[in-house]
């Protein structure tokens, strides 16, 4: 495959175009969702990894088949993408957030005496993450996504974008991106606290289920934020500007 990316390609553009590069980026530790606006040269420098090594790993990853969500969302309509994000990622969050909170409470109860120094801050970080995400999903579902669907609908009829009560779509998007950064920071903090989800020697099955669940939550949230920050939001801003 002749790849069409280079050091100036942003991480977000890369993953939007080649979803199979996600695993390689995760392995190197390059953030492709909240850090999606950085170009590959900057992202490699930030991680302290030589650029040629990063580019080589990414080229290798193109030989693999994308796993999970393989649809090319860059060519979907805004409405299709907003629907997909709600149906798949918002639903997943609503199912997993309370389940993992219960699991974490159980693990803390059983292992608090020995692992409380790690589990207490993990619970604190997790609980605020849950609260923030639940409010965030509501704001997207009640304010931002309905407006994005209206922009899409108006554009498809060749009509001007409707007026939004908070000015341009860029205002709520800026706020959502800020909240994504907060969520990304909480995920990194949890990874740090758990030493990259390394189970202690005395871990029980509930402990294991908790770490598996938290890693699945992290993976899903990365994909979710990537679809919003790197595809949905920039397309919505562009379409709104074009149809004013
Ligand atoms: Fe979302
Ligand atoms: Fe979001």
Automatic annotation (TrEMBL):
Subcellular location, principal: cytoplasm
A GO molecular-function descriptor: metal ion binding
Gene3D superfamilies assigned to the protein according to its UniProt record, in alphabetical order: nmb1532 protein domain like, SP0561-like
InterPro entries referenced in this protein's UniProt entry, alphabetically: Hemerythrin-like, RIC_family, ScdA-like_N_sf
Domain of life of the source: Bacteria
Keyword match Electron transport: no
Keyword RNA-binding belongs to the record: no
Gene Ontology CC entries for this record: cytoplasm
The entry's keywords: Cytoplasm, Iron, Metal-binding
NCBIfam families, A to Z: FeS_repair_RIC
PANTHER family noted in UniProt: IRON-SULFUR CLUSTER REPAIR PROTEIN YTFE
Stated name of the protein: Iron-sulfur cluster repair di-iron protein
Taxonomic lineage from the root: Bacteria, Pseudomonadati, Candidatus Hydrogenedentota, Candidatus Abyssobacteria
């Amino acid at each position: 495959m002749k790849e069409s990316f280079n050091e100036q390609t942003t991480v977000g553009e890369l993953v939007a175009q080649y979803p199979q590069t996600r695993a390689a980026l995760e392995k190197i530790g390059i953030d492709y969702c909240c850090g999606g606006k950085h170009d590959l040269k900057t992202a490699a420098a930030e991680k302290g990894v030589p650029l040629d090594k990063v580019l080589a790993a990414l080229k290798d990853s193109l030989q693999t088949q994308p796993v999970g969500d393989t649809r090319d969302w860059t060519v979907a309509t805004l409405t299709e993408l907003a629907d997909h994000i709600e149906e798949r990622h918002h639903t997943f969050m609503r199912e997993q957030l309370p389940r993992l909170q219960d699991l974490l409470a159980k693990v803390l109860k059983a292992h608090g005496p020995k692992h409380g120094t790690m589990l207490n801050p993990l619970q604190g970080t997790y609980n605020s993450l849950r609260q923030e995400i639940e409010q965030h999903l509501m704001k997207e579902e009640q304010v931002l996504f309905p407006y994005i669907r209206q922009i899409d609908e108006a554009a498809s009829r060749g009509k001007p974008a409707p007026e939004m009560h908070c000015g341009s779509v860029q205002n709520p998007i800026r706020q959502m991106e800020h909240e994504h950064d907060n969520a990304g920071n909480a995920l990194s903090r949890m990874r740090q606290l758990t030493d990259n989800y390394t189970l202690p020697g005395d871990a029980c099955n509930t402990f294991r289920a908790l770490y598996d669940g938290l890693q699945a939550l992290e993976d899903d949230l990365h994909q979710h934020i990537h679809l919003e920050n790197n595809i949905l939001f920039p397309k919505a801003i562009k379409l709104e500007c074009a149809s004013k």
